[in-house]
Amino acid sequence: MNGDGVNRRSIQWFPGHMAKTLRLMRQEVRGVDAVLLLLDARIPRSSLNPELEAIAAAKPHLYVLNKADLADPALTARWVRWFCGQGAGCVAISAKQKSGAAAVRRAVDEALAGLMARNAQRGMAGARVRVMVAGIPNVGKSTFINTFAGAARAAAADRPGVTRGRQWIAAGRYDLLDMPGVLWNKFDSLETASNLAFIGSIKDDILDLEELAAGLLSQMRAVYPGRLAGRYKLTEQQLALPAWELLEAIGRGRGMLMRGGEVDTARAAAMLVDEFRASRWGRITLETPPDDAAAGRAAVSGEQQPDAPAAPGGPQQADAGKDEA
Ligand code: G4P
């Protein structure tokens, strides 16, 4: 079984305020010097909203793979190489760590070196640099801005031309424009929608959590079977079960039973999604760069932790649970 059934009916989700935000961004981008496009390092492709990418294309822009502390380091390195290979600047960070802000500051300076040099020639060295921060909901924009601005954070509200409804934050010589998160008007694939749901960028209350958990199990089993087997003490036979039965087996294994002995699959599903989001399964990346995908997942697995189906109670990732959010 694959994850094709995941929330097929309910996953279309584009509230009106997101359409409004897109319109606003198309106007605002004219007035900024650069755009930071925040992506989730666990799903760099699925978290890249093409509408936001089109807006960013108008200015020097930088792809920021955030939450790198939750992602598979080998795959993150490949993704950074891939974005850079496309001629785009790219940096992997964890916005929760101060070093993340420093890495981005260096990368922004580098991306904007030409502009800085021109400003210096015109005697405007030290001129403020305006940067739009864009991304999907929950990707870490607020966290990033807080870390980036640090103690220097201040609302840069008193500049002429500042319009109500969007927030400028002064951070050193940067003015950051904080934009609300925007999803897709229409998802290009079910896989994209499912991946966004797994990481929590689509509100859970419009999703069927059991379908979501079954889809997550399907995907995890395909890319990191050893971790799944290790964490939930699954036999090879259990690991090969259809996703719904696997969900039941995991629930039973955790003693999540209702009166009459039936497995409480709703509880098991909530537990699985929570554990995935809290990084209890270790550092995981669900997508490979396009080149890697063509070469097959095996090539990637060779570089990272070997993850063949594990024996019951098999070894867990050494980093499992290390990066709990
Ligand atoms: P947004 O503005 O783009 O919507 O995202 P926001 O900064 O609110 O971050 C969403 C969640 O992601 C927050 O967790 C935040 O702590 C977490 N987060 C942001 N950047 C990183 C990162 O680099 N690594 C990790 N591990 N987590 C990150 P939350 O559970 O919603 O809130 P809280 O428990 O942190 O208060």
In words, what does this structure look like?
- The protein has 325 residues and is of the alpha/beta class.
- It contains 14 helices and 7 strands.
- It has a 7-stranded mixed beta sheet, sandwiched between helices.
- Helix 8 packs across helix 9 and helix 8 packs across helix 12.
- It is elongated and about 75 Å long.
- 42% of the residues are buried.
Q: Major β-sheet, in short?
A: 7 strands, mixed
Name the structural class. Answer: alpha/beta
- Strand order of the main beta sheet, please? 3-2-1-4-7-6-5
- Helix content range of the residues, please? 40-55%
Question: Quick one: how many beta strands?
Answer: 7
Supply the number of helical segments.
14
- Rg from Cα: 21 Å
* Overall 3D shape: elongated
Distance between the termini: 30 Å
Spans of 5+ residues with little confidence (pLDDT < 50)?
1-12, 156-164, 295-306, 308-325
Order of helices and strands: HEHEHEHHEHEEEHHHHHHHH
Strand proportion? 5-15%
Task: Draw up the topology in text.
Blueprint: H1 16-28, E1 34-40, H2 50-56, E2 61-66, H3 73-85, E3 89-92, H4 98-111, H5 113-121, E4 129-135, H6 141-149, E5 154-155, E6 167-171, E7 174-178, H7 190-199, H8 209-223, H9 225-232, H10 236-239, H11 243-253, H12 265-277, H13 290-295, H14 297-303
Helix pairs in contact: 4-6, 7-8, 8-9, 8-11, 8-12, 11-12
Bound molecules: guanosine-5',3'-tetraphosphate (G4P).
Quick structural summary:
The chain is built from 14 helices and seven strands. It has 325 residues and is of the alpha/beta class. The longest helix is centred in the middle third of the chain and has 15 residues.
